[in-house]
């Protein structure tokens, strides 16, 4: 084990690196990866010394002011916005604090029970286990549903590469379930324009990723009669109504506001600055006249990861000023990287995630080699003191993907007690993930270009409240 | 005649009013109108005292810093941007100074001769008389033309109301001539989205004005086989290629840049901030695949009033960075208001302009009653000292609309010598304008909804270089 002094100098060097990367404005992935390493070093420091690492606050090394991310994390606060998620805790982001900070509401047992009553079915495991943990106005959606009033679902994805990983599926798995139990139409936005604006991509690359990613999304099992998937680059050019809503939103949001919400600066491109209106527009039903005709009053429900909330805080602020209903929201936690819950998974580090293209063997190797363990250093210690499910990534993954509540609880008990060893736990996870990914691959294989084209064509959808 | 003291207190009061209007951010028209009155008071002051009015520069009344417009004007500099044109000179803006400030090139006799040689026809009176006075890269366009390489024309209009006046026709009259003599395709952008963003209009109103204004533009005689007129609100929703270019431009322009060019502030809407990309996009031929297929390299020539130049300075700055040719430009002077050349005409003051809907009688009354005269106070004085064509609005209008050079020169001589009285000069103008407007009205009458629809449909155009 490294000494505290060695670790300190490594931490200081890594902090310098993170700062330098930020100053050079390199990609989010690079910064994430460096920040992640910094967090792991700090975790090691604590493991070695029993104390939290504290940065030297000498005048030569002042707090970095308004710089995004690092200062909040160093002050013990998590940092979450659409481009950066940071926490120094191996348990991941403190979601209760986030609810308070964002001003959303906790999905409590009462709300889960109400959903169960409304749909007459067992709530999804993501609800039962607090993976979708926060909401805005979900009771209003249920009021509408119980009064036979229509609503629709809206979610999306930023297609930054062809490679999607397990974490990317979370909102789609949940949205598919919502579509099934509520029997409502769904629109899925592929923000290829956003990825073009933020990344070093050509327009054709971004659009190509949108189409490729759409295949993985379709493989989640969405109902083609009730689902419209669209690329911004394509749909903007095929619907005046969508552009009209974008302009409407853009008229009612100032640079001051997006600066406050997203941290944009004067050196950001005018494309980035105006983009939030494009992610906001699908929240309003008259952006889709082919689906909702001229109705502008149909309530929208947005399932998404909590880091997307800033877009919809802005949307909810604008909505009443342009005569539209505020969208409701269901927020999920982040899917942890194999290396630990300090950050989201990174599409650019193949070992940080299980990709949807991974083979059974790759899955086995990645879990065995990279999944951060909450177990003890030796089998003897583990049997004696037990493992820590709160930081164990294999256990976290099982909470996402193992449907059987009783079995999950038994695993939790056995691992905590030490009866279940890390190797055994990883084996269970591997046996859950291998068929899950293989079945996804099989379904994706069946998604032909014609099917994608159909999903992505502006058209009438079929649903109850027409 | 008012005393210098009376005028001073009127000027001071008017200055306070202008400042107050600016602080309240009222409409451009209101500020223009108040500023115009201020300029006229200063002109009267000079007439009464023989000296320029000088503001008190006491510490209580410091220069207003970065505020748009007034400071430049008070310092004897004209102020010109897409939303505000100000000068304190009755002769109008000093265009030679503007060429230096904007970094464009003067349209000199050599260039006019070259155009004449290229087209084998007499240059348009707007060229002969310096109404189109400035250019960027026009020689490059002529090089292309002489080498049988294609180019196309792009101009536009912000449809802020149904009422168009004579001044609005200037770029279209000239563009029609360019289309005829060069036999090239033309795209005309109606920035209804811009007007929605800047004015207190609904989207439907702005689009409605775009269609109404298109009728007046079509009545200028454009060739339906070679002309595409489009509303942004409509065309954005029917062309992915247009949106792709908009996003491309938006990626390569920062808020800092548009702040510098257009004077935007943090309180401006993100719609205004990102709009310049939408006015820039038609400068690139692949925004119109229905016309130019996939060619991105066809040179664009933009005839416009000089106040639109900031948009195209930005466009020319971006073009090479996204792999497109820079658009060339031909800049016109402003068409003076009836009350004098201090500002552009205002669509909101019916007496400042001859509207395209005015009857023969209204034209007669407006010219006789409101056209600022460079004549003397009495017939005797006029006969003795002669009139001043440099500030006489009737004479200025004749330079725009009287085709016969010799007759115009004779009028100038006679008015300057005093042989021609103000009443006679106004009579000549009335006799030029009445048939011009009546013929426009007759042509507009013939523009059916079907014709407008055809002009505004994205479609193939017919021209030589296909």
Q: Topology, please?
A:
The structure is a homodimer of 466-residue chains.
Chain A: H1 4-23, H2 28-49, H3 70-74, E1 79-81, E2 84-86, H4 95-102, E3 105-106, H5 109-119, H6 125-128, E4 132-136, H7 138-146, E5 151-157, H8 166-182, E6 186-190, H9 192-198, H10 203-218, E7 227-231, H11 232-235, H12 240-251, H13 255-262, H14 270-274, H15 276-280, H16 289-292, E8 299-305, H17 309-318, E9 328-332, E10 336-337, E11 340-344, H18 360-370, H19 379-385, H20 393-401, H21 405-417, H22 422-445, H23 449-455
Parallel strand pairs in A: 5-6, 5-8, 6-7, 8-9
Antiparallel strand pairs in A: 1-2, 3-4, 4-9, 10-11
Helix pairs in contact in A: 1-2, 5-7, 9-10, 18-22, 20-22
């Amino acid at each position: 084990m490294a000494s505290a002094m060695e670790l300190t100098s490594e931490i200081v060097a890594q902090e310098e690196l993170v700062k330098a990367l930020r100053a050079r404005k390199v990609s989010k992935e690079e910064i994430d990866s460096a920040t992640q390493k910094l967090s792991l070093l700090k975790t090691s420091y604590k493991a070695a010394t029993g104390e939290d690492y504290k940065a030297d606050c000498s005048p030569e090394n002042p707090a970095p002011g308004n710089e995004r991310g690092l200062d909040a994390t160093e002050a013990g606060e998590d940092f979450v916005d659409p481009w950066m998620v940071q926490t120094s805790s191996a348990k991941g982001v403190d979601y209760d604090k986030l609810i308070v900070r964002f001003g959303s509401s906790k999905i409590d047992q009462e709300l889960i029970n109400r959903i169960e009553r409304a749909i007459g079915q067992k709530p999804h495991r993501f609800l039962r286990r607090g993976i979708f943990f926060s909401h805005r106005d979900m009771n209003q959606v249920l009021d509408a549903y119980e009064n036979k009033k229509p609503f629709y679902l809206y979610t999306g994805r930023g297609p930054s590469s062809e490679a999607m990983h397990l974490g990317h599926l979370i909102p789609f798995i949940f949205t598919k379930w919502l579509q099934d139990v509520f029997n409502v139409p769904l629109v899925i936005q592929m923000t290829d324009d956003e990825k073009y604006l933020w990344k070093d991509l050509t327009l054709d690359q971004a659009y190509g990723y949108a189409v490729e990613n759409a295949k993985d999304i379709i493989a989640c099992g969405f109902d083609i009669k009730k689902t419209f998937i669209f690329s911004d680059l394509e749909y903007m050019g095929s619907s005046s109504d969508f552009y009209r809503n974008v302009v409407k939103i853009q008229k009612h949001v100032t640079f001051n506001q997006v600066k406050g919400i997203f941290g944009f600066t004067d050196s950001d491109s005018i494309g980035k600055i105006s983009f939030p209106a494009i992610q906001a527009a699908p929240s309003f039903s008259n952006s889709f006249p082919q689906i909702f005709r001229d109705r502008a009053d149909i309530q929208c429900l947005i399932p998404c990861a909590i880091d997307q909330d800033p877009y919809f805080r802005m949307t909810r602020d604008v909505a009443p000023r342009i005569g539209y209903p505020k969208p409701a929201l269901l927020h999920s936690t982040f899917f942890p990287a194999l290396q630990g819950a300090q950050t989201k998974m990174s599409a650019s580090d193949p070992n940080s995630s299980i990709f949807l293209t991974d083979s059974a063997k790759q899955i086995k190797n990645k879990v065995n080699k990279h999944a951060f363990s909450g177990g003890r250093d030796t089998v003897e210690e583990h049997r004696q003191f037990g493992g820590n499910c709160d930081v164990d990534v294999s256990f976290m993954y099982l909470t996402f993907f193992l449907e059987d509540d009783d079995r999950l609880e038994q695993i939790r008990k056995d691992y905590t007690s030490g009866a279940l060893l890390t190797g055994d736990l990883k084996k269970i996870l591997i046996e859950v993930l291998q068929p899950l990914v293989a079945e996804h691959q099989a379904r994706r294989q069946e998604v032909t270009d014609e099917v994608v084209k159909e999903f992505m064509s502006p058209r009438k959808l079929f649903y109850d409240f027409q």
